[in-house]
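For the sake of transparency, this paper describes our internal protein records without simplification. The record that follows is passed on verbatim for readers who wish to inspect the format:
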Amino acid sequence: MSAVAPASPDVRAAYQHCQQVTTTQARNFSYGIALLPGDKRRALSAVYAFARRIDDIGDGSLPADDKLAALAEARGQVTELASGPAAPPRDPVLLALADAASRFAIPVAAFGELIDGCEADVRGTTYRTFDELEHYCRCVAGSIGRLSLGVFGSADPAAAEPLADALGVALQLTNILRDIREDLGNGRVYLPADDLARFGCTLTPDRDPWSGAPWSGAPWSGAPWSGGTRPGDTAGLERLIRFEAQRARDWYATGLRLMPMLDWRSTASAGAMAGIYLRLLDHISATPAAVLQRRMSLPVKEKIMVAVRSLVGLTPRPAAGAPAAGALEAGAPAVGVAAASERAVPASDAVAADGKAPSEGKGPAEATRPVAEGTS
């Protein structure tokens, strides 16, 4: 980008507001953003703050029509930012984002794809195939990968952009697995219908995925399952979760090829964000029943450990394979990530309902294609 004037007091205050939003609301991304130098840290905080605003519209309590109207207003703001606002925005998030876009090659129009995905959420879109879910993931998370890449910078953007997109898909698949229970309570099912049928299981909105009872909104209050009779028949769902976790690992393996294309601080930042989600995925895969009972998250000390490892140049890597098919089935003890890793099997032998490996069919090998801007 061309040289720009130093930030005005209003712009500096706007950045401080965005950094406050990031610190208080980005429970995972903030660890990676904090590793960037000041100018990139401020710019990525502005990107996050506006993305968070869009997400909050989609996930908020407004009636659907009001949500769609608010998203349409946000789309208009994106259009104005992409073309260059005629006057400095008065809104602090938009002001910071406009300044960031003048300093870095941020593809502001990609926010339109995030809005496309949020509109799909508001309308209650479901997904029959993984192809359909992949498109959604590219909208809501691949777009964020490419927006972040605009801040990170790369010597070869044409090669880096599809990898950033693939990394976003990996993170979103992790989110979907983590939030199965919460999403059901909000009337949403993201896992593809084809995959649910393949594993002989169902997810019913407003029904507890663990007990099968009507949704109460509270985590499962009984003892965690450790063998014997389940409150509900979840064996198929647990196998499906492992299947989707291996699929996500394949996307991480593709997306993490981005790391050598970034400078040191940007690599540390992206590595910390991806590493936190990858470790979360390992926990989910090792104990899939847990996400049917409550929302899973990493302890703060584990997130800090991942960030420190990224800062010293240790790039996260996906596990070689998924936990063995029999893990956590009837009569098997609950295990942690380390124990599950000891009996990991090659991806080609990972659990599947029909004898096929999880990576069969369309996967991240096709993630090298760029995503068309403005798709819906």
Summary: The longest helix spans residues 130-152. The chain has a mean pLDDT of 82.
